[in-house]
Amino acid sequence: xxxxxxxxxxxxxxxxxxxxxxxxxxxxxxxTFILNPYDEWYALVRALELVEAGGxxxxxxxxxxxxxxxxxxxGLAIGANDAVRINAQPTSAYFTAYQIAQYAxxxxxxxxxxxxxxxxxxxxEVGAMLAEMLDMPFxxxxxxxxxQGGKAIISRDIExxxxxxxxxxxxxxxxxxxxxxxxxxxxxxxxxxKTKPLKVVEPVAVEDTVVAVNFELPPKKTAxxxxxxxxxxxxxxxxxxxxxxx
Length: 246
Known about the structure:
- This protein is of the alpha/beta class.
- The protein has helices spanning 37-54, 69-78, 93-104, 126-134, 187-193, 232-241, and strands spanning 2-6, 9-11, 19-20, 25-26, 33-35, 57-64, 82-87, 111-115, 138-142, 144-148, 151-158, 161-168, 171-175, 198-201.
- The strands form 4 sheets. Strands 9-13-8-1-6-7-14 form a 7-stranded parallel sheet, sandwiched between helices.
C-alpha cells in the first residue's frame, strides 16, 4: 500500500493558554509543541503496521513552516519512509485540507490517514474536507482496521454499540483511540531519520472561507465552598441562589 499520513503540531497539554495581537492569535511564546497524538499514536502507527505486514510506503505530510521540521523528523524516526512539508502557516481547517488535497491528488495514494481531531481546536474537520476535495470515501473515528485485498474493514464506536463498515480504496480515514498502540522511536531510528527525504512544497493560493476573529478565555473558576454535612439548609440555599449549571 501507498499511504499518506497527515501530521499536525499542537501545543503540549501542559502549555499555558494565552492570546496575542488583540486576542486574534494564540500566543506561542515559550510554548512547547508536540505531534498531535491522534495523528502520531494511531494514524501513523497503524499505517506503518499495514505496510510492515503487506509492503508499501508511508509518507507523512504537514502544513507548516521550517520550524516544524524537527517534529516532522520525529514522524520519520517512528518509521515513515519520507515526508512532505507544505510551506505555509495553517490558518484554518479548510486551508489545511486544501493544501494537502492539492498535493495528494496526483500522487495516487491507496489511503490517507489522519487523527480524528487535533487536541487544540478539536474541530474534526480536515478529514471530511480532504475526502470531499479528493472525491474519496471517508470513515471517521476508526478504532480498528483490517485490510482484505483492496478492501478495508473498519470498526468504530457508535451510541450503544460498534459499527463495522467496508470501504474500497482509495479512502480517507480518521483515527481514534484503539486503532494502534503508541511507538517510541529508538536511537538508531532517530539517527536514520536525519537522512530520510523531506520535500518542501510551496502552497497553492486559496482564500480562507472561515477566519477566526477573536479568542477569549473562559471565566475563572470560583472558589470551592465547604458546607457542614449537618447544615442542609445552607446547602439548599446555596444550590438555589448561587449554583450555576454549566
